[in-house]
Automatic annotation (TrEMBL):
It holds the Pfam family adh_short_C2. This is NAD(P)-binding protein. The keyword tRNA processing does not apply. Keywords: NADP, Oxidoreductase. It comes from Parathielavia hyrcaniae. InterPro entries: NAD(P)-bd_dom_sf, Sc_DH/Rdtase_CS, SDR_fam.
Length: 368
């Protein structure tokens, strides 16, 4: 009798277990759908449409003292529909370069002080023109103690160094250096040490680009030359400056200018060598960052997208530039000063916990 009783009690359970899983889940899924329907209906009915937005503004008194008692409370009306923002006209670019003064620096909040490069010695390669020259100007404005421009072009280098000195009053020097020449680099870096002390920052912007050359017809000599300048030159500069930082026991920052071409393949132009060279620069930066972290030397890369430099302002590239812009979400090429803020940030102590990074600044091109 006991066995029969047990069997009768187990029968409903066994029957339930013998049903397919989807059948067992049916009741609970119906309940879940019902609950979801109720929740969804409730969410639809709970759309908030405020008629006004309460605002509290805290401002200092006439003596400049902050006080919670000086708050203004008011409301602003909410208009139906989304209003388009008012168009703003851009200010005309100024050619002036205003260096950060010590008095101003001391009055800045701590966060802004860390974002400066006050008192630092900076070397900029490829600084005679274009992106490198604008980054050198940005370093001057951010508080650099002295700037050394390395470039292979004697005339442009002398002209740009003299102009930067005249505009800022800062010590600026020019060294005619080909980044493929290790001995010349070592001599120039040592002279920077003799003049200003060991460098705190290297911005390596020197490089060239060969484009619209099919891989199957690429001249091997041209291929080697571009790799020698873009990749080997980046290594030789980083090595020379890194050694002086280590010898001086300085916390240093090395910024290598790579390219988005090191991470993607450009369209429509063929440029296998340039892409390979910049991919090498990115991996070089990561490797040096890993090796030199123990010396408190940080190494990061900037990877620009298509930039509106003088080298790109030629009629032969007009058709391609239309394609480049159409593939860029911001629908424009980068301005020559669009790298400045990132350059200063990477050079500054504000990026002190950042090393081995490759930062894309391309108007969104690599999003697609």
């Amino acid at each position: 009798m006991a066995a029969v009783a047990r069997s009768s009690r187990l029968a409903p359970r066994l029957a339930a277990l013998s049903r397919p899983a989807f059948a067992r889940a049916g009741a609970s899924s119906v309940a879940q759908r019902a609950a979801f329907s109720v929740s969804a209906g409730r969410m639809k009915s709970e759309v908030i449409k405020e008629m006004e937005v309460p605002v509290t503004v805290y401002s200092s008194d006439a003596k400049g003292t902050a006080s919670s008692n000086s708050a203004d409370h008011f409301s602003i009306p909410v208009k139906a529909g989304a209003a388009a923002p008012a168009a703003q006209t851009a200010d005309a670019p100024e050619d002036a370069v205003t260096p950060l003064q010590d008095k101003v620096f001391r009055q800045m909040p701590r966060t802004m002080q860390k974002m400066s490069i006050m008192g630092k010695v900076v070397i900029v390669t490829g600084g005679a023109r274009g992106l490198g020259n604008h980054m050198a100007r940005a370093c001057a404005e951010a508080g650099a103690k002295a700037i050394a421009i390395f470039d292979a072009n004697q005339d442009l280098g002398d002209e740009s160094a003299a102009e930067l000195h005249q505009k800022t009053g800062l010590p600026v020097s020019f060294f005619k250096v080909d980044v493929r020449d290790g001995n010349a680099i070592n001599a120039a870096v040592q002279n920077v040490v003799d003049l200003y002390g060991a460098p705190d920052v290297l911005v390596n912007s020197a490089g060239i680009a060969d484009s619209n050359i099919k891989a199957e017809t690429y001249d091997p000599a041209m291929f080697r030359r571009l790799i020698d300048i873009n990749l080997n030159g980046s290594f030789l500069m980083a090595q020379a400056v890194g050694r002086t930082m280590m010898a001086a026991g300085k916390h240093g920052s090395i910024v290598l200018v790579a390219s988005m071409s090191g991470s993607i393949v450009n369209y429509p132009q063929e440029q296998s060598c340039y892409n390979a060279s910049k991919a090498g620069v990115i991996q070089l930066g990561r490797s040096l960052a890993a090796e030199w972290a123990k010396y408190n030397i940080r190494v990061n890369c900037i990877s620009p997208g298509y930039m509106d430099t003088a080298l790109n302002r030629v009629p032969a590239l007009d058709a391609q530039k239309k394609i480049w812009k159409s593939l860029t979400p911001q629908d424009r090429l980068g301005a020559v000063d669009d790298l400045n803020g990132l350059c200063v940030f990477l050079a500054s102590d504000a990026s002190g916990f950042m090393t081995g990074s490759n930062v894309l600044i391309d108007g969104g091109y690599t999003l697609y």
